[in-house]
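Task card 7
Instruction: Convert sequence to structure tokens.
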Amino acid sequence: HIRQAVPDGCCLWDRPDEGDLLSIWRAGFVPVAGRPTAAGKLQGPSEDMWAILRQTADRIVVEADGAAMHPVKYPAVWEPVIPQYTDKVLVLCGLSALDQPLGDVCHRAELALEKGVLADGPLTEAGLVALLIRGYGRYDPLFVLNQADDGAAYARGEAVAARLAAQGHESRILSLKNLNLCQ
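Output:
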């Protein structure tokens, strides 16, 4: 379940009706597929919706593992929930987590500490790399290092990317701060 936020340029598609989906695309919007819950959240598409999406869409982007509004996360054993037909996993993390207390910036920080992934304290570049690889490395993901919003943050992103590359992992550095992905 994720927050039910539909950005500008997007439109909620919440029932298995191919005509509705095609109308959203024809109107120039990006469909956000999901079913609203009574709690105000959005749950994943139904199996019928998935079938329509897979038949009509060139690309489907799935949020499989939310971080409860934190810049980084260490997943529990049941996370992430990745559809079986997934071609590529992207792991998005926020560089704003660096130098901050782990408990303030990491969803499931207590689990990362319990598993011995890293020690408590401020999150270092090496700690971020350990968190990412131990949490998601088994999926051979593309690590997306977000929040490189200025020169200093970008340089930190380069340092993290170099550490990831040294361990055989691909990454990209970017800033989504003022980017509307739905346009």
